[in-house]
Amino acid sequence: MVHINRLFTPSVHTSILSSSLLLAVRIVFGLLFLNHGIEKWIAFGDMAMAFPDPLGVGGSISLLLVLFAEILCSIAFIIGLLFRFALLPMIFTMIMAVFVIHSGDPIEVREPAIIYLTMFVVMFISGPGKFSVDATIQRYLQAK
Where do the domains of the chain lie? Predict the structure, then answer.
């Protein structure tokens, strides 16, 4: 049970203000990242064959992995469900974008991915805050 409680540790921040700011960041960055995924999903047929394949698994599979990070993980990020687990694919996707896919591009092209990567790492460290599904689960587990 102790290990399950650690999984749902909401944050090192406990104040209402800190949790409110974390919620705002989750909503803004989560919706922006989700939008990227929805755009890719809509254009899946056109993008699949030409999508970058840094892992060597094929363009379609690479695109599906990015869609997982940008859609499903974004939703989990926004609501604060399995928060740190959801951030791992998001962080990995941005690492690949910054250091592999756009490595030779000017900083202006890499800038959005750098901003997302920085924010996702900061959020991974800080946690989702009190206003998250993880915090609700933790409160429930502590009440038992």
Answer: 2-143
Q: Choose among 55, 54, 86: nearest CA to 71.
A: 86
pLDDT digit string, tens, across residues 23-41:
999 999 999 999 999 999 9
From residue 70, alpha-carbon distances to 19, 27, 35, 39, 73 in Å are 23, 14, 8, 10, 6
The residue whose two tokens read 């915090």 is: 135
The pTM of the full predicted model, rounded to 2 decimals, is 0.87
Give yes or no for a contact between 19 and 136, defined as CB atoms under 8 angstroms apart.
no
Q: What is the pLDDT of residue 49?
A: 85
Rounded to whole angstroms, how far apart are CA atoms 19 and 60? 38
Instruction: Write out the two tokens for 32.
Output: 């922006």
Helix (H) or strand (E) holding 24: helix 16-42
CA distances in angstroms from 40 to 33, 46, 62, 83, listed in the order given:
11, 9, 12, 23
48 is written with which tokens? 């699949």
Give the helix/strand (H/E) hosting 140: helix 133-143
